């Protein structure tokens, strides 16, 4: 695969990841031995799927613990191999907190986990429920989390391993909406998707209140791609589901999903 021909289709900041996926796919194809990656976000998974689909000798498999998990571990394997769940090296954990006395949110749990010195790539989805939260982690850090996570915010917590079938079901729903934009700039998509004026969208981006694929972006001209997740502080998030062609007036057709 000519790497330079692949890189031109992706953002500059994505090129190191693209190069890594190409190298992994080519190694799997050459040695006919599977390679497991850490957790990827939806945009990274989308990129990995596009790349592996161009190589006949490999297939991409994903697993994140839940059927519709956003963050998944990716296993690149020879086409003749079908992996088992164990091959993804996932562990389900339940963090139990005294929710009757304290209100903890997703960010509290995630912040506590990252506060242990863990990399985000070792953590899958985190689902908050009435008794605390459930999360899926890479198996090689599960014992460390169980031994060292003793508090979330000001609340004392306990951590135990659970079966994957015991995981609380995440309620991931979104409302699809077709919009038309003058360009695929971040401010144009955010403007239409969140119902803002263009100037307000630009000021929000400059004020570091907008994330693109979980990364703060301050450049309003950043181009959005299919599969991207856009978050606006205080207004939720949306996913770019489909990029269509131009309308009769020359505007671009885009389908987004606003998370409910």
Can you characterise this structure?
The protein is of the alpha+beta class. It folds into three domains: 3-83, Ribosomal Protein S8, Chain: A, domain 1 (2-Layer Sandwich), CATH 3.30.1370.160; 90-166, RRM (RNA recognition motif) domain (Alpha-Beta Plaits, 2-Layer Sandwich), CATH 3.30.70.330; 174-259, Roll (Structural Genomics Hypothetical 15.5 Kd Protein In mrcA-pckA Intergenic Region, Chain A). Helix content is 27%, strand content 33%. It has helices spanning 3-7, 15-31, 42-52, 106-114, 139-148, 186-194, 198-206; strands spanning 35-40, 58-63, 72-78, 90-96, 123-129, 132-138, 151-152, 155-156, 158-162, 174-181, 210-212, 215-216, 229-232, 236-246, 252-259. A six-stranded antiparallel beta sheet has the order 10-15-14-13-11-12. Strand 14 and strand 15 (252-259) form a beta hairpin. Helix 2 (15-31) crosses helix 3 and helix 6 (186-194) packs across helix 7 (198-206). The longest helix is centred in the first third of the chain and has 17 residues, at 15-31. It is globular, with a radius of gyration of 20 Å.
Largest sheet: 6 strands, antiparallel
Kindly estimate the percentage of residues that lie in beta strands according to DSSP.
25-35%
Specify the number of helices: 7
Q: Alpha-carbon distance between the termini?
A: 41 Å
Oligomeric assembly: single chain
- At the third CATH level, what is the topology name of the largest domain? Structural Genomics Hypothetical 15.5 Kd Protein In mrcA-pckA Intergenic Region, Chain A
The parts where pLDDT drops under 50 for at least 5 residues are none
Instruction: Count the domains.
Output: 3
Label the CATH architecture of the largest domain: Roll
- Largest beta sheet: what is the strand line-up? 10-15-14-13-11-12
What is the radius of gyration computed over CA atoms, rounded to a whole number of angstroms?
Answer: 20 Å
The CATH first-level class of the largest domain comes to Alpha Beta
Number of strands: 15
CATH-assigned homologous superfamily of the largest domain: RNA-binding S4 domain
Mean pLDDT: 90
- The outline comes out as globular
The string of secondary-structure elements, in order, is: HHEHEEEHEEHEEEEHHEEEEE
**Category by helix and strand content:** alpha+beta
Helix content: 25-40%
């Amino acid at each position: 695969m000519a790497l330079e021909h692949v890189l031109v289709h992706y953002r500059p900041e994505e090129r190191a990841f693209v190069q890594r996926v190409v190298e992994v796919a080519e190694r799997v194809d050459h040695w006919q031995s599977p390679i497991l990656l850490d957790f990827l976000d939806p945009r990274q998974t989308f990129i990995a799927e596009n790349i592996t689909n161009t190589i006949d000798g490999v297939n991409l498999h994903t697993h994140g613990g839940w059927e519709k998990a956003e963050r998944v571990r990716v296993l690149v394997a020879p086409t003749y191999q079908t992996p088992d769940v164990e091959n993804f090296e996932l562990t389900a954990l339940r963090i139990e907190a005294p929710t009757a006395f304290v209100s903890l949110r997703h960010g509290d749990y995630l912040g506590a986990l990252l506060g242990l010195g863990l990399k985000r790539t070792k953590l899958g989805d985190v689902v908050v429920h009435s008794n605390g939260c459930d999360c899926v982690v890479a198996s090689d850090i599960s014992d460390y989390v169980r031994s060292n996570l003793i508090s979330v915010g000001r609340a004392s917590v306990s951590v135990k391993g659970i079966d994957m079938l015991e995981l609380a079901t995440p309620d991931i729903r979104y409302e699809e909406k077709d919009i038309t934009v003058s360009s695929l700039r971040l401010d144009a998509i955010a403007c239409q998707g969140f119902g803002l004026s263009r100037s307000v969208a630009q000021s929000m981006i400059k004020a570091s209140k907008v994330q693109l694929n979980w990364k703060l972006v301050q450049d309003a001209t950043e181009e959005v791609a299919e599969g991207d997740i856009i978050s606006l502080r205080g207004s939720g998030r949306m996913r770019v589901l489909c990029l269509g062609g131009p309308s009769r007036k020359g505007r671009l057709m885009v389908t987004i999903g606003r998370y409910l």
